[in-house]
Amino acid sequence: MIGAHDLGGKRGFGRVLPASNANAQGSDLVEPLFHAEWERRAFALTLASGMLGQWNIDESRHARENQAPQRYLDNSYYETWLVGLQKLLHEKGMLEREELAALPFAASVDISASASKPQRGRPITEAPTPAKAAALLTRGGPTLLPDSRKPKYALGALVKVLPMTQAGHTRAPEYVHGARGIIHAINGVHIYPDANAHRRDEDRIVGETLYTVSFARAALFPQRASCGDGAETASAKKILKSESTNQEDRVIKESCEDRVFVDLWEPYLTHD
Q1: Is 83 helix (H, G, I), strand (E, B) or coil?
Q2: What is the pLDDT of residues 19-64, one digit of tens each?
Q3: For the residues of 224-249, what is the DSSP string, one character each?
Q4: Of 26, 59, 61, 147, which has the most beta carbons under 10 Å away?
Q5: Which of 70, 64, 65 is nearest to 86 (CA)?
Q6: What domains sit in the chain, N to C, each tagged with a CATH number?
């Protein structure tokens, strides 16, 4: 879905201002992980609830992004986490509508007609513990699948990103929609988030080949460059081949030669 959460390349939001990592005396000053105690609790609640096994990470992401645009932009980072968590707890039958209405940020939670009848949750077999949470954060959530299918696109192939018009979840950022690029790496078959975000218990896990696609920076953001339209050429393919074989030797002479690398699943792409 294209929404307020898809901020990459958007104009009108001002500059990104990274937090300073040093104070006036020159000693290290790292920005705190949490700016208030409630943010720490929001993180803990989200992690612990996710460990109950009622939803996957793509469902969680979709729950956060599926807000009215202005509400999404008005919320802070962990406010959006709480909105997503409350929505999931209701949809999975763990939180009644009346309970939801009494919680903070309930007005931001979109309960559609289908969500008004919560699903029956999966059986909870074990409770989360601090040790399990620490292990989960260390391990992460691998998405690589044991699938030996042949990829549709070869290294160096010219591809174009399809426009994404579906209402559901996608990991293809809007700034690459319709853009032309080059296959830089083939990363195997990974869980396909567009399907996984809407998967029911009876549905099988869908996997698709994941590629790293290289784009000319000028093609993605032409308003920031005076380099022509950034169209991929034979010389661009030659540059990319050099990048793929000997990354350490790559030298960027001008900003017009900058490239942007985006991980994209096979259904997002077509031959150019």
Answers
A1: helix
A2: 655 554 555 556 778 989 999 999 999 999 999 989 999 999 999 9
A3: G--BTB----HHHHHHHHHHHH-GGG
A4: 59
A5: 64
A6: 37-139 (1.10.472.20), 158-271 (2.30.30.50)
Q: How far apart are CA 268 and CA 190, in angstroms?
A: 14
Print burial letters for 103-116: b (CB count within 10 Å at least 16), e (below 16). eebbebbebeeeee
Distances (CA, A) of 57 to 60, 153, 170, 183, 218: 5, 27, 13, 26, 33
Decide: helix, strand or coil at residue 154. Answer: coil
Q: Are residues 203 and 164 in contact, defined by beta-carbon separation less than 8 angstroms?
A: no
Q: What gap in Å lies between CA 18 and CA 42, rounded to an integer?
A: 23
SS3 195: helix
Model-level pTM? 0.79
Q: What are phi and psi of 257, to 5 degrees?
A: -95, 0
What length does the chain have?
A: 272
Nearest to 78 by CA among 31, 46, 50: 46
Pairing of strands 158-161, 180-191: antiparallel
Q: Label residues 196-216 b or e (16+ Cβ within 10 Å = b).
A: bbebeeeeeebbbbbbbbbbb
Each residue of 206-234: pLDDT tens digit?
999 999 999 998 889 876 655 655 555 55
Query: How many Cβ atoms from other residues are within 10 Å of residue 247's Cβ?
Result: 8
Rounded Cα distance between 64 and 67, Å, is 7
